[in-house]
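Amino Acid Chain and Its Fold in Token Form
===========================================
Scope: a single protein chain, as residues and as a discrete description of its fold.
Amino acid sequence: labelled as such and written in the usual single-letter residue code.
Position: the record begins directly beneath this header, with no further notes in between.
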Amino acid sequence: MVTFTTKAGTGFIARDRFETLHGVALARSNDSTYPAMTALHVEDKWIAASDGRRLHYCRNHYDLVAGEYTVTQCTRTAVTVEPRTADEIEKTGSFPNWRRVLPHKIASAFSINFSKDSRTAISDIIAILRRTPINPDYLKDLPLTNYRVYLQPDRISSNGTPIPQAALFRNRDLRAVIMPMQIASAPAGNRVYEPKDRSIVGRVIA
């Protein structure tokens, strides 16, 4: 069992490194019917977590040995992980191939500021939601900093309807691939997500 914390003492790491690991851990699934997805997946160079609707990953700067880890604590000041045994992994299954959801084509890219003192980000977030209908709640789990946002070209369905693709948020340490929401009720060619509660968007940078 290993604990990473921003408090002085055993397990202390720098705030930015902690927020990156915390941000990755928040993306893991809480669905016990898919136990492999509840793990923090660690490789020699990468750490990843996904709930099937988003994928967060970062460089392994934490000296964690490759394997699957159970997150036993995930708070604003501490993240505790425990390696799963071979028997546990045999029962839960292995983490899926996370690289297959990474964007391969980019249609557009721009920068966005999620810092605490920024308010202009709200209009940028709305613009993202219009282009790629992602759940704004997921943005609240990203560390507050500057991001480069990459949007993929839409795929076109057999009936000519644009199908939005995942958006990639990238800062110095963290990568977040967020899948678009399915909005079946929207008319073809006009699949726009407007959050009913605008305060949700405001809380992203509040």
Remarks:
- Helices lie at 15-25, 86-92, 121-131, 198-204.
- DSSP finds four helices and twelve strands in the chain.
- The longest strand covers residues 67-74.
